[in-house]
Write a structure and sequence with these properties.
By secondary structure, this protein is of the alpha+beta class. Helix content is 33%, strand content 36%. A 6-stranded mixed sheet has the order 1-2-3-4-6-5.
Length: 141
């Protein structure tokens, strides 16, 4: 698990300005219901609890973006969560993250709530998180 955590942390650092470290990934992967699906240039980390699942993070190397990898990971994660008994899948995304919002909309996610000031910005500002959800009992791509 330590090698997986280090690998995920390294990729996360390429994808995000405020990345999670290997210890955070190791702690998450040690929790019940948490699993990762990986490809060479990206991964998705999810948690399932009872009949719900949550995308904890989705990371794609900047050089590999806009090539369908994010959509493949979201689809694979959705199917894996459904196979584990989840009927709804949730996530949080920054309100100003247009590429991610487009990806999730194309995958069938819709608005389910808002967390005001959830994300800290480097300039000291805060950005709202949108809570999105999708039904996993419908046909999955």
């Amino acid at each position: 698990m330590r090698e997986t955590a280090a690998r995920l942390a390294a990729l996360h650092a390429e994808a995000f300005a405020a990345p999670w470290d290997a210890a955070a990934f190791e702690a998450l992967l040690g929790q019940a219901g948490v699993f990762a699906l990986e490809e060479a240039d990206g991964f998705i980390l999810l948690r399932t609890v009872a009949d719900e699942a949550e995308i904890l993070t989705l990371a794609v190397r900047p050089a590999a973006r806009r090539q369908g990898l994010g959509a493949r990971l979201v689809g694979a994660g959705s199917r894996a969560a459904a196979a584990r008994g989840a009927t709804r899948l949730f996530l949080e995304v920054a309100e100003d993250n247009a590429p991610a919002l487009a990806l999730y909309a194309a995958a069938g996610f819709v608005g389910a709530g808002r967390r005001p000031g959830y994300y800290a910005r480097p300039d000291g500002g805060r950005e709202d998180a949108l809570i999105l959800a999708r039904n996993l009992t419908a046909t999955l791509p």
